Amino acid sequence: MKTVIQFICILLISATTSCQSKADKKEASEVNRIELAENLSRKLLEAQKSGSYYKLSESEATPTMINGLNEDLQKSAYIQIKSMFGDFEDLKFEALKIYPKNGTSYDIFRFKGTFEKSNEVEIRAVLDKEGKLSGFFVKPWSDKL
Questions:
Q1: Stretch 45-55: mean pLDDT, rounded?
Q2: Burial letters 109-120, b for 16+ CB under 10 A, else e
Q3: Would the pLDDT of 40 be above 60?
Q4: Three-state DSSP string of the chain
Q5: Which of the chain's ends, N or C, has fewer CB atoms near its CB within 10 Å?
Q6: How many Å apart are CA 57 and CA 133, to the nearest integer?
Q7: Other C-beta atoms lying within 10 Å of the C-beta of residue 133
């Protein structure tokens, strides 16, 4: 009887540890994706602030984003951003929304941007299921997505 109780205890501990491990892995994966989105957003805005641009790589972004966020577009977009909000200072993670679209899932990362003239700025980075940047926006903050 004692052996059966010990076996059941070991089985329960093993099952609990296994479930916890899966949850930890999922949470770690989310944290890694948040860091990825935050780092890309920061690199883009800091390069633009310095008068340069950030050249996205194929491992960081989809081909559409690489072509769309070219040097000319980044520089002209930052002129508009600066006129509205001032220079970029910092960003802080606010929310993650998973958005299914046409059978594909996108992770929408919302960051609260701190700029010279305003702290009510949304910096939004969209990653596809492969973790590649597929959208990037800077706009006035809205509580609604």
A1: 97
A2: bbbbbbbeeeee
A3: yes
A4: CHHHHHHHHHHHHHHHHHHHHHHHHHHHHHHHHHHHHHHHHHHHHHHHHCCCCCCCCCCCECHHHHHHCCHHHHHHHHHHHHHHHCCEEEEEEEEEEEEEECCEEEEEEEEEEEECCCCCEEEEEEECCCCCEEEEEEEECCCCC
A5: N
A6: 10
A7: 22
Exposed (0-12), middle (13-18) or buried (19+): which is 79, by Cβ within 10 Å? Answer: exposed
Q: 115: closest CA among 137, 83, 144, 70? A: 83
Report whether pLDDT(3) > 60. Answer: no
Beta strand 121-127 pairing with 133-140: antiparallel
Amino acid 63 reads P
Kindly state the tokens that stand for 129. Answer: 């299921």
- Of 28, 47, 50, 39, nearest in space to 111 by CA: 39
CA distance 92 to 113: 7
Q: How many residues does the chain have?
A: 145
The amino acid occupying position 71 is E
Q: Report residue 15's pLDDT band, with 50, 70 and 90 as the boundaries.
A: very low
Q: Is 80 exceeded by the pLDDT of residue 93?
A: yes
Location of structure tokens 């633009």: 48
